[in-house]
Structure prediction request, 335 residues.
Amino acid sequence: MDSVIFALVLVPALKELLPLSGFAAMPGVIGVGGEWTLAGTYVAEAWPEDRRRAGAGYLQTGYYAGFFLASALNYTIGTHYGWRVMFLCGLLPVVVALYTLFNVREPRKWKRTHGDAPDSAPSKRPLRDIFSKPYRQWTIVNSVLVSVAILGLWGGSIYLPTAVIQLAKRQGIDAITAIKLASATTAIYLIGTIIGCLILPFLTDRYGRRPTLAAYYVAAALFLIAGFSWAFYLHAGLVPFMVLSFFIGLGGGNAAMYALWLPKQYRTSIRATAFAFSTSVGRFFAAGVSLCLGVTVSHFGTLGIPIALTASIFVVGIITLRWAIETRGAPLPDY
Prediction:
């Protein structure tokens, strides 16, 4: 079982090696989004109760670990051999994906509702069911919370390397070194995110889901503002901006919350559908916001203030937490 879980974590990590032609492009949204749903549900249903908490944190680090590998490869291989060689590195995920495909088995919880002798009939209209009582409020709240996380941090993560390159050039640093610094800053950002993901499950057990997520939202917002509205406009702001990128990433570790929190709110027959819907709605809005953000940056001729303003969306998340359900200590619904 541990080898299968390791593969589930590793697949999204290695898939981030694919979009390596440039850090400004949005990474594998469709592929990784689908894997997040399936892997998050699988970990919730397959891992024993005493290990599920840590499993959610481990799972979420896969995406960021892959992005970290991409940064390291871009720093070494990309700057010397170009994007074509970088894309060849993306062949490795194919091997891992095939390994996972042949080793993953359906969890017993799912088999009890969908197998040959189900204890209860599986839902025939799961999308309708996640909007029925008592799930309607939870689905709406979860969708808003995940959307806030995506909208609040996509701008910062997408434009982070561009900001570093601009800061480096402002200080007279040559283009190749600037690209390396952008890769290094991205790696610093991802280290912060990975640490944030790993400590989040333990914070939720101590303080609860809602207070912990609120703290992560506040941290993400404050450091995003500090990085893009202050450090970015300093003449010698490169080092402060690189340091702040770690803490922006730390706030971004809130992404680990949803694989930990959402599965506990739904019964087995609709769990995957609820997870998929809640974690995907924000992507549609984020696509439009990213387009508007690009237009705004182009119009004003600066990316600092427009990116900093995206931090305001976290206020919506903090307010929405009032209607979120607290699941600390509650077992995973097994029906």
